[in-house]
Amino acid sequence: MPSASPPLRSWSREKRRFILAAGNTAHGFGLGRQVGRCYALLILAGRALCLDEIAAGLGISKATASITLRKLAAWKLVLRVPVEEGRRDYYRIEADFARVIREGLLPMAKGKLSSAGLMLDDMLRSAPAPVDNADRGFTGSPAVPGEVRQLLQQSKALQEKLTLILNSGLAARFF
Q1: pLDDT tens for residues 50-59?
Q2: What's the burial of 132, exposed, middle or buried (CB within 10 Å: 0-12/13-18/19+)?
Q3: Are 90 and 83 in contact (CB under 8 A)?
Q4: Pairing state of beta strands 90-93 and 78-81?
Q5: Cβ distance 130 to 145 under 8 Å?
Q6: Alpha-carbon distance 84 to 112, whole Å?
Q7: pLDDT band at 160, cuts 50/70/90?
Q8: pLDDT tens string 59-91
Q9: How large is the average pLDDT for residues 81-102?
Q10: What are the domain boundaries of the chain?
Q11: Which of 43, 54, 166, 174 has the smallest number of CB atoms closer than 10 Å to its CB?
């Protein structure tokens, strides 16, 4: 008996699934669902789209689409395309993914690591010295246990190593 082929799905259904999956993936990375959905829509469009088309294609407001496109443009994931006629701006994906990584994602990662480093520095400076639980009694003093301080120090060391790698130019040499 011949094996049955899975039923063919329509292109429009698969596009919707792809856009939703891209949104969920971007959300998982902390970038926001609309970022992933907008990027996926532009990939699948195969051409530059205007703000109205993007908003309609995703079922979102033009304001939300505009904010999302600004994020994508700041990360070099999309480019504004000049169009001679009309006043609308059109957007397309940046197809040079090495450029996206080099000029968009690496600087974003460096900025986030720097911010995390400052926060960890503040936490380590302001954390009270560890207190032995036997000395605390039942007062509930706000002392930081040694394990917490150790985790903060380990996090800071990792942040410093990652920052060193990203600032060394090693990552950029691959892209």
Answers
A1: 999 999 999 9
A2: exposed
A3: yes
A4: antiparallel
A5: yes
A6: 38
A7: very high
A8: 999 999 999 999 999 888 999 998 777 778 899
A9: 84
A10: 11-93, 97-133+142-174
A11: 174
Closest alpha carbon to 39 in 81, 82, 74, 69: 69
pLDDT band at 95 (very low <50, low <70, confident <90, very high): confident
Helix axes 33-45 and 11-28, enclosed angle (nearest 10): 140
What's residue 104's pLDDT?
A: 82
Give the CA-trace dihedral at 67, 73, 77, 78, to 10 degrees: 90
Going 140 to 146 to 147 to 151, the CA torsion angle's sign is positive
DSSP 107-131: HHHHHHHHHHHHHHHHHHHHSPPP-
The correct CATH number of 11-93 out of 1.10.10.10, 2.40.10.220, 2.60.40.1120, 3.40.50.2300 is 1.10.10.10
